[in-house]
Amino acid sequence: MKSINTDVRFTPVIAKLLVGFALLCFTQISLAQFGDEKVWPKIEELGWLDNQHLNNQRASVNELAKLKLGDSIRGNKSDLDVLQRIIDARLIASDERVKLQALGVIIGDQFQREFNLVWRIYEDQAGRSRAVCFKDTEHCLFPITMLSRRMEVGLQPNVKKIYDETAEALQPLLPKLPYEVSAKK
Q: What domain range includes position 161?
């Protein structure tokens, strides 16, 4: 039986390259963690491309609703019922992530209308997302994935229940009206 030589020899050149690579990695990690380049989270206004993407998503859901259900997206709370009908009829396959996320844009628009939120770009260590946020705060919702993540694993979410539960969770973040008294529980 022939043996395989597993000896690895570190020449001075290879050793210097490995040390250099290790220092480069450490420097990048240090800058990412301790540098003042980025402060997390970073919340910015939507750019033109982001607005176009959201508009295209809205249009795709509206077209699907018109073609398959004979209904349309109206820009009010009845849109939640249209989303439920799309889900119940299984009009979007679980592997069509972009189409599933389009449903989230519609639910996000309803949060925006009802709670005076604004669409923003939310960026943190995990990446960049479109979110609806309370003005001038870091409090944001990520509606684009509220339905899609559930549907990708084969669930049929209850849109109204998800919306209502999220709306309930938002209540403590809403601005208080003058002379409003909080009920003690």
A: 42-171
